[in-house]
Amino acid sequence: MDIKASRFGLASMIAKWRTTLSQNVDIIDPDSETPVAEGQIPDAGAWDAEWRPDPLLDGFEVLTYTMGSRPHLPEEGTGNLVSTLVRHHPPRRRRAILHIHGWNEYFFQRHVAEFYESLGYDFYAVDLHRYGRSLQSGELFGYMDDVEDYYEELDACVAAIRADHASVVLSGHSTGGLIASLYANDRPKTFIGVVLNAPWIDMQGSALFRALTPPIVRGLAVASPTMVLPTAENDLYGQSLHTLYKGEWEYDLGLKRVDSQPFRPGWIRAVVNGHDRISAGLHIDCPVLVVTSARSSAPKEWCEDVTSTDTALDVDRIAARSPLLGWHVTMVRLLGAIHDVSLSRSDVRDRFFDEIRRWELAYLAGPGAQERAARDLSE
């Protein structure tokens, strides 16, 4: 494995975090002080009355869910969090897929929706609260205290989808893969399958970094959960994606930045706690497909590895953890894939979709598929 923090870099980052912890003060992002518009806070979560055209993706529709039980943090202003369900078409098929994006993300991958539709699924994606279409003025981008913070909106999305579909597959990328893993585990008998694209189910970095990070961020999270952590920035992955740089994809650079959004101790604590749950073993009760790159790397300047390896996560750690997700897990590692496998170069994308198609036929849709999956899960 060639993702290893240098001794100097690791020591420098830990020193910064310890200095911040020793100050024991609340540090608030200045951007978070802008208040959101005041409005009535509902007693319970509620969907908008009807779907409307998606302003970010032609041909798609969106529906907004206001989270009645989730008001803003004090530094975010008044009002409640919202979540946004995205779909390509009104219901046409009996089966559907719900996709959860990763960190510094929102749903823009039209080609992914079109692929699942070619398999016979209606496609839905959710922009979680504080992300993408759901981000409101003054909110702390992507912040969560716990992975279960997302369960209210995911429950609402699943209920809305199941009103028109007989079965649902859950999909997640990176942090969304962590969320999808825990949610599928905690909602048994809800999904017929789970597809994970480079799920963040273990911490990357050296053994020393993985050992030191949890206690340090937990201490920082007690002192000031929403402060901005000092981190080393690397924008090579972002440059490899967007057409304004060296990539082939177009998306809103305000909602998916080239570098990254700020990291906060409370958010990292939630991720680490999720990793601990997976380390203890989950029992997802349906077939799971995990797809990652074959290799990780940590380049400091532009090179071939940027466009052919996972430069965000440690795929060896993901592979080691994947069997702990449940009794029926299929693991595929693709040469030439990047962190979001669906955004890899075209030949790798084709292999990614071929692997999903093969797995789906074997365990979800083909003759005897459900029986084989049920037998494997019961053994």
Strand content: 15-25%
Helical stretch count?
10
Give the biggest sheet.
Answer: 10 strands, mixed
Superfamily (CATH H level) name: Alpha/Beta hydrolase fold, catalytic domain
The arrangement of helices and strands along the chain is HEEEEEHEHEHEHHHEHEHH
CATH topology annotation: Rossmann fold
The low-pLDDT segments are 1-43
Q: Rg from C-alpha positions?
A: 20 Å
Helicity range: 25-40%
* Quantity of strands, as a count: 10
Structural class: alpha/beta
Task: Give the CATH class.
Answer: Alpha Beta
* Overall 3D form: globular
Number of domains: 1
Q: Please report the distance between the alpha carbons of the first and last residues.
A: 33 Å
User: What is the CATH architecture descriptor?
Assistant: 3-Layer(aba) Sandwich
Describe the structure.
- The model is unreliable at 1-43 (pLDDT under 50).
- Strands 1, 2, 3, 4, 5, 6, 7, 8, 9 and 10 form a ten-stranded mixed β-sheet that branches.
- The chain is built from ten helices and ten strands.
- By secondary structure, the chain is of the alpha/beta class.
- The radius of gyration is 20 Å and the shape is globular.
- The chain has helices at residues 7-23, 110-118, 151-162, 175-186, 207-223, 236-241, 265-280, 315-321, 346-365, 369-378, and strands spanning 46-47, 52-53, 61-71, 80-87, 95-100, 121-127, 167-173, 193-197, 288-293, 329-334.
- Helix 1 (7-23) runs parallel beside helix 5 (207-223), helix 5 crosses helix 7 (265-280) and helix 9 (346-365) packs across helix 10 (369-378).
- The protein has a single domain, classed as 3-Layer(aba) Sandwich (Rossmann fold), CATH 3.40.50.1820.
